Structure formats: C-alpha cells, structure tokens
# Entry
Amino acid sequence: MDREKALQIVQKRISGPRFDHTVRVLETALDLAKQYGADEKKTEIAAIFHDYEKHRPVSELQSIIVEKKLDSRLLDYHSELWHGPAAAFIVQEELGIRDDDVRNAIRYHTTGRAGMSLLEKIIYLADYIEPGRQFPGLEEVRDLAKTDLDLALKKAIGNTIKFLIDKSARIFPDTFEAYNDLVK
Ligand code: DGI
Ligand code: FE
Ligand code: FE
# Structure
C-alpha cells in the first residue's frame, strides 16, 4: 500500500488533530528509520496506522478484545491501552496488513514490551517525541534519540511509569517489562 492511499484510509477514521498527530509521527518515525537503519516502507505503514482505532468507542474496543481473543489482561487495565492491540488486529482483518513486525509495532506502541524490535522502538519513540508533544522531560528524550535509541526509549518509558505512578494509575506489566529489559 502506498503512503497516500494509507493516509487516505486513516483520515476517514481519525480526522482533525489526531490525524495531524499521525502525520507528525510518520515524519518523526521516518527520520529515526533513516538514522537507525530500519525498513522505511514498514516504518511508514506502522506509523500511519498506529492510532487507527483511537477514536473507536471503548465498548467496541472491548468487544474486539473479547471476541477476537486478544490479550485478555488488557481488560483489567485502562481503556487507553486498547487501541493499539485492536488496530493491530483490524489492519490485518480489514486491510490485509500481515507483516508481523509492522503489526507488533502498532500493537505495542502504547506500552512497549520486553524484547522490542527496532521498528517497535522507533514507533514507540516517534509517538512520544513527535514535535506536537509537550511535557516535562521531553527535550531530554529528543536529544537522546539523536544518538542512542535504547537510552531514549528507557528514558521515555521511565517517564511514562513515573507519570502513571503520580496519577495513581495501574501500570500494565508489558510497560514494566519494557523498562526492565532496557536496564541491564
Ligand atoms: O495514542 P497516543 O495519545 O498518541 O499515545 P499512546 O498510545 O502512547 O497513549 C498514551 C497514554 O497511554 C498516556 O496517557 C499514558 C498511557 N499509558 C501508557 N502506558 C500505560 C498507560 N496507561 C496505563 N494505565 N498503564 C500503562 O502501562
Ligand atoms: Fe496511541
Ligand atoms: Fe499516537
């Protein structure tokens, strides 16, 4: 699927600011892919579709997780975590996107996981540092991303865990496992 076609498909579901975010994630991810030697075509598709299910009602996301037998642990955690796994399923089902690495990059873009691939790391980080984002500690991660992908990722995931603890939010095990995996 070419870039324009993919963007057209996504824009029908997530227009407005969320679509603008997607385009910035795409540009950021392609920069990282060039820098760190990832497959640019796969990066493009994963970035474009990473938030494809972001605007689907929570009740429908829940049905997808139950009926399609996705990771049932998700149901015990915040619904914010559901759009990635749902999108990874839907892009295969509806659009025939079968590449495992692309689908895992979409699936794990919110939580990360232990043993992330280069593409998974790039999508996670691009989503975190795209130029429209603004929060404490972000500049440091942007700087690290210029020289050391794993160090940037460790900082980003560590910041997310701190942010969640400050909110007294539950933390999905994959998020901890991603962090532990990067601290060696
Ligand atoms: O979809 P985006 O807004 O572009 O970004 P995202 O998919 O990374 O979602 C970010 C949200 O997910 C942010 O509010 C933090 C939250 N999040 C990330 N990891 C966890 C989490 N929330 C919970 N409850 N537990 C987690 O492990
Ligand atoms: Fe997302
Ligand atoms: Fe996103």
Notes: Residues 21, 51, 54, 77-78, 80-81, 109-111, 127, 160, 164, 169-172, 175 surround 2'-deoxyguanosine-5'-diphosphate (ligand 1) (CB under 6 Å). The radius of gyration is 15 Å.
